[in-house]
Design brief:
- The structure holds two protein chains of two kinds.
- By secondary structure, chain A is an alpha/beta fold.
- Chain A is about 40% helix and about 15% strand.
- Chain A has a four-stranded parallel β-sheet, sandwiched between helices.
- The relative contact order of chain A is 0.25.
- Chain B is an alpha/beta fold.
- Chain B has a five-stranded parallel β-sheet with strand order 5-12-6-7-8.
- The longest helix of chain B has 20 residues.
- At the A-B interface, helix 1, strand 2, helix 2, helix 3 and helix 4 of A face helix 11, helix 12, helix 22 and helix 23 of B.
Chain lengths: ~140, ~900
């Protein structure tokens, strides 16, 4: 049986993390191909609805990335994101999906290497957790 | 830098713009001996031209800005530090490459000698700077960049031991001291105040032995794996030729001379200077000075004013609202960048199978000029109403394609990109199948979103071509005059009865023959005689309404309300000298502040003549726990006072009691002069501040001398000068009115400390002077010109397009809970009456930045973020997870 390849949705903010991913590319830093990146202007745009939708549609993990605290292009958007994701994670526990399947990470525009590291470690983490089986509602 | 191998045709910087190849003419076999020529043969776009020659171009101009920069100092002459002898002694620039992900080691901090990990790294400061014999000046930036480099090593691997060997810690920039504190506390960087005498390698070890002496004891030795030399900023090679050509003067270090109080004026009419060619400086000062130079050129060249380039005429926009989506997909090979790793024909074929895609093709380079023509043709031929380009990152190329859409009559928001280069071919190079699959998925996601993209309108708003300057000190007055000299009306609001602020109290300057009061007099005369400046003294700001281009400000002027309309605001509210709560200040009249003493000195106060010894204490209230920042001008102020005293009162003993002497740039010279002229310098540190007590009638100053093993010496000065901190005014209410942030220290916080130093994140509001951070008069003047320059670049446009990617409220659904008002950092939403006693939120399109925080928090789903609607994002999620067939 081939190894389980998780399907991951990654949200990246326009000002730090998305350019961080670009820099990983420019620097040719390799990482696993499991995630599909969706760009939002700010990590604060990532609604719990999007996260739940991803799991409902078959994602095994959701990674949200934004600017480091203090670096947000919109002053405090990443602090909002932190609150939103924390609450969404609690909801995931309640739903039996498990908060380990959702991760929030800060990646700056200059951290191509870090973007690749975060991606690699998140894919590993989801591989360990295995395929998500949603509970019957 | 000779650290790695590259080919004779190469990309100089991986993040450069344009990111294209260049030929190294010193090593290309074709250019040296007419052999090879391979690149011409294989270049698919025929971009190689070996015949390219230097051309002479004649331009007629009205002004010249000289910004030729500096050369980094190569420490070849300093053989004692082992550079050139030991591979593991590197310059700071080489170290930058070693620690860079795109560098020769891929960012691994290894020893060049053997490729092993560097576990102990030493950074040596002032290499080629502050050297009385050769380069006396301070390079201004090395203290900070060396600390940054040490922090990079630490964040790379916590186990790496980093030690910084420094003479004085010159962390004089905004928030720099806090950075040093973090480097010490959070990262564990070790600092040793010392002078390094040699770096050597013994026969028994491959490590480097660093020999250094501190103030206290005998020379010490330590071993390191890697030694980084923090080399200074050196005169630009060829600066003398440039100076001769332009007829401008150089100073004795080979940098450009400027006139007193004016850092951009070369003294030759029409020629201005900026950047490190004027004096070594950091990024914010460089950006600021370049804006200041632009302001001067702008004032000189008017009239006629340069109008912003006319926009290319676009065909009328096609109304697509009633059409079903017709999507065209263009998949880029990016030469070999995508094509070698992603099966592009397969992606194109797949794109054709997607819903609403009526056309798909591949391009060698989708961004090339001919591809733009092709895309336009295909839009017309196939009546496309949405376009997807699967190529590289939208962050660099989206504007180009959007322009193409506009030229084809499509709204630019009907465009979407799939980033199959940075996210596929470049990061999954050994997995072509997975990379191709991912490219298909990203294309499918882009197509899904494109189906529901909507055209958006950028509504133009008129700009009122006037500026308001808040604060009539040196910075504000200069900024107002600069606006007027560039042709714009300026309202100057000052709370005191006279203009000039702190600068009124500045009686001397360095060099001592510069006269600040004469300068101020002439500045005020210029302001008074310029019809475009309208001065309101004894006035304060009561209310600010409006937004970029359209502000309405209410000013309380001598008890009466005045309403002013303007398009831009410059904040120049200044700062004040701290009244120190220590050292008997206020309890004994022989203890005065620096500013107070200057006035005594100017009027030759009898007490000075009667004194035998005067002590100046530095960092009073600065660089302490409560105020962890450097006030930047106190050291120079102390030197100025000391030199003035030594010359005017030769029998008087002058002591300067300091933590670090921070005489950055060419000011270092005054530090030497003061030592030569007999001023006595005594250093203290945070743990052992000097103590001042009254002993009978005398002032008893006790100081612990580090160099004497902590022995105490006692002085009985007749007067004590406290060079106290510069503190911000209470800016909180103005900050609220203008919706701009303050730093933890209470100064105003600009949009970006390095790259946008004189503007706020709030559009249309600019900043200069002490309100920004402590700085010298000359620096305030430069910054004032810079702020005016940035304001004029706004005021010179007749209209401004309000951004279209903004949030909007469905007033029917809104329950006026106020969540959006609470969360918005820009006060864009407000609750308004919508009739029938009902309230609803309304978002000001000119204030909204489009971050999308409010739609997420809206409990009634009444807010939509245009162009990033929930529907559009969900369409991408769904498409991403749909099993590809």
């Amino acid at each position: 049986m081939p190894e389980f390849e998780p399907r991951i949705i990654c949200f990246a903010c326009n000002w730090c993390s998305y350019p961080g991913a670009d820099l990983a590319g420019v620097s040719r830093i390799q990482y696993p191909p499991n995630a599909r990146i969706i760009r939002t202007m700010c990590s604060a745009r990532v609604s719990p609805v999007f996260v739940l939708r991803a799991f409902q549609q078959g994602a095994d993990g959701v990674l949200v990335t934004g600017c480091h605290i203090g670096d947000c292009h919109y002053i405090s958007g990443n602090e909002r994101a932190e609150e939103n994701i924390k609450r969404t994670a609690e909801l995931l526990d309640l739903l039996g999906i498990g908060k380990e399947r959702l991760r929030l990470e800060w990646v700056s525009a200059g951290e191509g290497g870090r973007f690749a590291e975060v991606m690699t470690s998140f894919v590993e983490q989801i591989k360990k957790l295995g395929k998500l089986k949603l509970k019957e509602i | 830098m000779g650290m790695g191998i590259r080919k004779a045709i190469y990309i100089p910087f991986s993040q450069g713009t344009p990111n294209i190849y260049t030929i190294d003419k010193e090593h290309c076999p074709k250019l040296i001996k007419d052999k090879c020529g391979l690149c011409e043969k294989i270049c698919p776009t025929g971009a190689i031209n070996y015949q390219q020659k230097e051309q002479e171009v004649q331009l007629e101009v009205g002004a010249i800005v000289v910004a030729v920069g500096f050369d980094s100092f190569l420490p070849r002459s300093l053989t004692n530090l082992g550079f050139g002898r030991y591979k593991d002694v590197v310059t700071s620039l080489q170290y930058e490459r070693l620690s860079s992900a795109s560098g020769p080691t891929g960012g691994h901090l290894v020893r060049p000698s053997n490729g092993e990990e560097a576990k102990r790294i030493a950074f040596i400061h002032c290499v080629g700077s502050r050297d009385v014999k050769n380069r006396e000046f301070c390079s201004s930036v090395c203290c900070m960049y060396a600390t940054k480099e040490a922090v990079i090593a630490k964040s790379h691997n916590k186990e790496i031991d980093t030690t910084v060997f420094f003479m004085d810690m010159r962390s004089f920039g905004k928030e720099f001291d806090q950075y040093i504190l973090r480097a010490k506390k959070d990262y564990g960087v070790r600092y040793i105040r010392s002078k390094v005498s040699s770096v050597s390698q013994s026969n028994t070890s491959d490590r480097l032995t660093l020999r250094y002496s501190t103030e206290e004891g005998p020379p010490e030795e330590e071993e390191f794996d890697l030694v980084v030399l923090a080399g200074g900023l050196h005169r630009q090679t060829g600066s003398s030729e440039i100076a001769e050509l332009l007829g401008i003067e150089l100073n004795r270090y080979g940098f450009c001379s400027t006139i007193p109080f004016d850092s951009v004026e070369t003294g030759k009419a029409g020629i201005f200077v900026c950047g490190a060619f004027q004096e070594p400086k950091d990024i914010p000062e460089t950006v600021t000075q370049s804006s200041a130079a632009a302001a001067r050129v702008s004032a000189l060249l008017r009239p006629p004013r340069c109008k912003p380039a006319e926009e290319g005429a676009y065909p009328p926009e096609i109304d697509i609202t009633k059409q079903p989506p017709r999507i065209g997909v263009f998949v880029c090979r990016c030469g070999t960048n995508i094509g070698d790793f992603v099966n592009v024909p397969e992606v194109v074929e797949y794109a054709r199978s997607l819903p609403y895609v009526v056309y798909a093709e591949e391009n060698l380079y989708s961004c090339s000029q001919d591809a733009q023509e092709r895309i336009k043709d295909k839009i017309q031929e196939n009546k496309l109403n949405r376009v997807v380009v699967a190529s590289c990152t939208p962050r660099t190329h989206q504007p180009l394609f959007q322009e193409t859409l506009r030229q084809a009559g499509l709204n630019k928001y009907l465009f979407e990109m799939a980033n199959i280069r940075e996210q596929c071919s470049w990061v999954h190079m050994s997995q072509p199948e997975e990379a191709t699959q991912k490219a298909k998925d990203l294309t499918r996601m882009a197509v899904a979103r494109a189906q529901i993209l909507q055209p958006l309108v950028e509504v133009p708003a008129e700009i009122i071509p006037k500026g308001l300057v808040i604060g009539g000190g040196l910075a504000g007055t200069t900024a107002a005059l600069s606006l007027a000299e560039q042709g714009y009306k300026a309202y100057l609001v000052e709370k005191e009865a006279e203009l000039g602020g702190n600068f009124r109290r500045l009686k001397f300057s360095l060099p001592l023959d510069d006269d600040p009061q004469k300068y101020l007099q002439s500045l005020i005369e210029k302001v008074e005689s310029n019809d475009l400046v309208e001065v309101y003294t004894e006035a304060e700001i009561k209310e600010v309404a409006g937004f970029i281009g359209n502000f309405q400000t209410t000013v309380l002027h001598k008890g009466k309300e005045v309403k002013l309309d303007h398009g831009a605001i410059i904040v120049a509210t200044g700062g004040v000298e701290l009244k120190p709560p220590e050292y008997l200040y206020g309890k004994d009249e022989r203890v005065v502040t620096g500013q107070e003493f200057e006035e005594l000195l100017a009027r030759d106060d009898g007490r000075i003549g009667e004194s035998r010894a005067i002590a100046i204490i530095l960092c009073v209230g600065s660089r302490e726990k409560e105020r962890p920042y450097c006030s930047r001008i106190c050291c120079l102020h102390a030197l100025k006072t000391a030199l003035k005293l030594r010359r005017g009162y030769p029998d008087l003993q002058v002591f300067i009691i300091y933590k670090d002497i921070i005489t950055y740039g060419f000011k270092e010279e005054y530090y030497r002069r003061a030592r030569e002229e007999g001023v006595i310098f005594l250093r203290y540190d945070d743990d052992h501040k000097p103590s001042l007590l009254k002993e009978g009638d005398r002032l008893k100053l006790t100081h612990r001398v580090q160099a004497l093993g902590g022995e105490e010496i006692v002085l009985y000065p007749d007067m004590i000068i406290l060079n106290a901190a510069i503190i911000p005014r209470d800016n909180s209410s103005l900050a609220k009115m203008l919706k701009v942030p303050l730093t933890g220290d209470g100064f105003f916080l600009e949009a970006h400390m390095k790259l946008r130093p004189v503007e706020f994140a709030t559009d249309g509001v600019f900043l200069c002077g002490l309100a920004h951070s402590p700085k010298s008069a000359e620096e305030s003047i430069t910054q004032a010109h810079a702020a005016a320059s940035r304001a004029v670049s706004l005021l010179s446009q007749t209209t401004i397009e309000a951004p279209a990617v903004i949030a909007e409220v469905d007033e029917e659904r809104c329950r006026a809970c106020g969540k959006c008002v609470e969360v918005c950092e820009y006060s864009a939403p407000e609750l308004v009456d919508v009739g029938e006693g009902r309230k609803a939120a309304r978002i000001n399109p000119l204030l909204c930045k489009g971050c999308g925080a409010c739609p997420v928090l809206c409990p009634s789903s009444a807010i939509t973020l245009r162009h990033f609607t929930s529907g559009q994002i969900i369409s991408m999620i769904d498409a991403a997870l749909k099993v590809a067939t």
